[in-house]
């Protein structure tokens, strides 16, 4: 039987364990101190800095970089964490190329921005390495708040509420906290179990009780929460996955990209994780890229991302697209799935060429087939298990600028809520801001 | 290629780059390596009197200031004069000069301020065949406590006296090395001239403490928990040296006196600037100590290329060319009006000019909602701060307001005539004269 790349079907151990370990090493390795000083020196300390405006959590970037220059990265971390308690994870996973670094004046001037993300990691790593938590809780308020979902928005809200003196009950359906930081996101962006370490560090604030295995619609219901707690924050994420609505979707070998990524993130030994020889990923967002690149890094021979619109419409940033291409992933644009073909399991994907007519994706009738023993669906997630009482907007829980839902005493944030992009950093900002609004409304 | 051959006090060297009296010139071994690398001359590390040599500390001798990428910007040292015996040094000097007759070999000397001490050492130095001597009246640490070095250089009468002894007991050129640790550099320079010195060399190092260790609360470099001031040199001191060279070059009493310039020469350009400011050659130390002797090669190619570009066939062609343009503040033309101008094509919108002008200067830069920065001509005093803080070279320029046009800040027509403080109506002396 053929081995490695050429082995047919969905197989584990396509590459030697050492190669896999190398492939999944840190995408952006941590700076050494000297590197950080040189990188920090490139910052111009702009007036009313564009990077700060571009950051969804409004981190004072020139200030924290200057603190790194001054040789006190722990103060820099404090500046970051004041605004963004998950600054460590955001340093790793933020699409900085479309946020702070995109508007860095040095990006505009010379195509080489100050590496804000890596500097942020340098600072936050330094502080976390000290093993201390830099924030103290205010005097107890006697208020109890339920936070449902321990992803970035929930953790951010819980931390801020605890800091303000409230007692927080954090409910999580999974056996681990962290949400997509723990179960989503490519492994090479969060190495050494960082997501879990960050959660442990965050919880050091105190006042947050985490209860696992509880979901809204399962053991929890909104009415009960409302009566048991002074306020409720919903950060339940997007639990559903869009269907292909193509023939053959039920064949073995067709799977949700998010499940593949979660399995990969939770695996203790990637060399035991099976992957196809010919992998096709349907979609064009970050999830598609994460699934495709990681398939390739596990040793799949051919990996193709099939996206229904053109390159410029792709949800994944240009950096992510280039990363995929560099790793050997083929990017196909203007193709949509028609069918997955195979006898017992997936063997081929039939795609139809598309064009955009009046903004809508329309098939041209021309089709092509790709070999595919594994097909990942990465065409978006949907809200699932939300309480009936809350009003929705665009398929998400409708919230105002402060995170208030249509139900009094209930706030929401993160991917489940309307407003903002589905990014970790946006979720952190929404959780923080909702916490401030909850505090305001409870304390008057 | 331009001819870099230099004749300084009649001493020929293939280029104007000499190594200053310092650790790089302490031994035959180093000096031979320097000559092989291309240095035009050396000033041998300072010799002391016959007898047991001085001793150096056994802890760190240097402290430094760095830029972000650990580029060395300033160096401080507490090393003393040579700690090897006089005899050893003299033998080595003799051998080296014999083997490198085309290179300049100058011997730096520091002995007590007594005639006999000089009378004893000078014939022995003369016997080495070296091309001249340099009197170390500059060293600011250690030796000064023993009444030598800068302790002499700070008293013009001593400078004159010792210089006279040297001219009496030594037949070749005498260069007096000056300390910058003095209020007005022209006094010691004049004393050297009066004493008969053939040239002055400057600057020696500047009294300095580079840093304080905030854990031990001791100055650095720290030796056994204590520190002392050292002598500062390197790129950071160049502007100070350049000014002192200019002061001597334009002082009527010392104008025309040969100058060997020292202070932060790191590239050819620094050397060209010192020569334009009246120096006949330059001495280098920190650049060599930072990068090794090979650093002279860029100095040679760079200076030569620039001279070719400007059509200079020898150092003499531009020596002192900048001196007539150094003047006193009172003679600067107050009718020369400029305004800062920001090139919108080059601007990267960092806003540093705005912050600098708004917070610390004249509120003469406007910032629009979409980060377009423009100069308000009616507020701009032409201070040039925005130019200096702008990270993009050439983005902000100072544009002259031609005569006949109105200066929007003052509302007055710019005059074509020269007008300086000496004739300005606000000058009380002018009023008094009327």
UniProtKB/TrEMBL annotation, chain A:
One GO MF term: iron-sulfur cluster binding
Q: Which InterPro entries match?
A: 4Fe4S_Fe-S-bd, DPD_II, FAD/NAD-bd_sf, FAD/NAD-binding_dom, Helical_ferredxn
Limits of the 4Fe-4S ferredoxin-type domain: 34-67
The identity of this protein, by name, is: Glutamate synthase (NADPH/NADH) small chain
The highest taxon in the source lineage is Bacteria
TrEMBL record, chain B:
Q: What class of enzyme is it?
A: oxidoreductase
Tell me the CDD domains matching this sequence. Answer: DHPD_FMN (cd02940)
Kindly state which keywords UniProt assigns to this record, in alphabetical order: Iron, Iron-sulfur, Metal-binding, Oxidoreductase
Judging by the UniProt lineage, the source's domain of life is Bacteria
- Gene3D superfamilies membership: 3.30.70.20, Aldolase class I
Q: Which GO terms describe its cellular component?
A: cytoplasm
Q: Name one GO molecular function term.
A: dihydropyrimidine dehydrogenase (NAD+) activity
Catalytic activity, EC: 1.3.1.1
- Please list the residue ranges annotated as the 4Fe-4S ferredoxin-type domain: 338-370, 371-401
Catalytic reactions on record: 5,6-dihydrothymine + NAD(+) = thymine + NADH + H(+); 5,6-dihydrouracil + NAD(+) = uracil + NADH + H(+)
Q: Could you give the subunit structure recorded for this chain?
A: Heterotetramer of 2 PreA and 2 PreT subunits.
- Please give the family membership noted in the entry: Belongs to the dihydropyrimidine dehydrogenase family.
Question: What is the protein name for this chain?
Answer: dihydrouracil dehydrogenase (NAD(+))
Q: Which organism is it from?
A: Epibacterium ulvae
